């Protein structure tokens, strides 16, 4: 695939806690093991917020799945980075190198501005990776890649559907996927990733990440109908092409097999 063919990168990040960092930063002098530090912090979060979800600042990327799309929104490829080793530093380097290599395509995420990109930006900081094209701070404010309203650099679908936080997207990506017949969450969600990682289920995490990217892709397609870039007929044609792609690639791919098993077609309302 030539660089010029890739117009969008739809991606998702699954991250795990850096227990050593948590131990050093939050519990200095307590000499907690990484696992004990994670457990203590999760307990505190559960007590204060009702969720054991940890802030992005203490997380490392364990999986990044990326779909490459053409300018007419067709799916060209979907991959997970640094398979089968899934090393955080290599995942981070490959992600940013890929964005540069393909000519800085538009990122498409769901809540990527609030979570996925901060994880990858801080990982780049940690590993000494320079990102001058992304942190283009000398550009005019509205041309800077990280500007919240620069949707040509990054289209966060949560921003789109919430009108940049004016409303709430209760139900999130799972709801938006289900509205158009796509699987959404089917037994795994982000709250289970840490336990899966601790149990050595890194491949399963990456399979889940692939499925999240597929949900994001199909929600993105329908958003193009909503905003007038695609007709519903054109969108359904592209969805059919993507289904055929998944069928072709499903042999030996547990993620695609699972996604197809839970696939649903959108049905137009009767007149």
List the helices and strands and how they pair.
Blueprint (H helix, E strand, L loop, with lengths): L7 E10 L1 H8 L7 H16 L9 E11 L5 E6 L7 H14 L4 E4 L2 H16 L26 E3 H6 L9 H8 L13 H6 L3 H26 L4 H18 L4 H8 L10
Parallel strand pairs: 1-4, 4-5
Antiparallel strand pairs: 1-2, 2-3
Helix pairs in contact: 1-2, 3-4, 6-8, 8-9, 8-10
Shape: globular
Instruction: Please state the CA-atom Rg, rounded to the nearest Å.
Output: 19 Å
Number of strand elements: 5
User: Please, what is the oligomeric state?
Assistant: single chain
Indicate the structural class: alpha/beta
Work out the strand percent: 5-15%
Strand order of the largest sheet: 3-2-1-4-5
Task: Give the CATH superfamily.
Answer: Ribonuclease H-like superfamily/Ribonuclease H
Q: Would you tell me which CATH topology applies? A: Nucleotidyltransferase, domain 5
What count of domains describes the coordinates?
A: 1
Which CATH first-tier class would you pick? Alpha Beta
Q: Major beta sheet, specifics?
A: 5 strands, mixed
- Provide the CATH architecture: 2-Layer Sandwich
Helix-strand pattern, N to C? Answer: EHHEEHEHEHHHHHH
Rounded to the nearest angstrom, the distance between the terminal CA atoms is 42 Å
Number of alpha- plus pi-helical segments: 10
Which stretches are poorly predicted, pLDDT < 50 over at least 5 residues? none
Helix % is: 40-55%
């Amino acid at each position: 695939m030539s660089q010029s063919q890739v117009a969008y990168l739809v991606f998702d990040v699954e991250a795990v806690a850096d227990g050593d960092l948590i131990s050093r930063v939050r519990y200095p002098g307590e000499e907690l093991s990484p696992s004990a530090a994670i457990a203590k912090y999760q307990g505190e979060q559960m007590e204060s917020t009702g969720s054991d979800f940890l802030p992005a600042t203490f997380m490392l990327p364990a999986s990044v799945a990326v779909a490459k799309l053409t300018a007419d929104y067709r799916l060209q490829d979907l991959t997970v980075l640094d398979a089968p080793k899934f090393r955080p530093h290599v995942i981070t380097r490959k992600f940013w190198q890929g964005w540069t290599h393909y000519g800085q395509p538009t990122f498409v995420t769901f809540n990527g501005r609030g979570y996925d990109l901060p994880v990858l930006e801080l990982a780049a900081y940690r590993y000494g990776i320079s990102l001058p094209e992304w942190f283009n701070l000398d550009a005019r404010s509205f041309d800077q890649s990280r500007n919240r309203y620069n949707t040509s650099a990054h289209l966060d679908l949560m921003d789109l559907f919430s009108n940049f936080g004016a409303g709430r997207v209760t139900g999130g990506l799972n709801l938006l996927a289900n509205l158009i017949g796509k699987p959404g969450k089917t037994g795994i969600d982000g709250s289970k990733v840490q336990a899966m990682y601790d149990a050595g289920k890194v491949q399963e995490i990456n399979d889940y990440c692939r499925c999240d990217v597929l949900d994001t892709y199909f929600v993105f397609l329908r958003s193009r109908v909503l905003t007038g870039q695609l007709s519903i007929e054109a969108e359904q044609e592209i969805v059919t092409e993507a289904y055929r792609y998944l069928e072709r690639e499903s042999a030996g791919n547990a993620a695609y097999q699972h996604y197809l098993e839970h696939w649903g077609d959108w049905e137009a309302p009767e007149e």
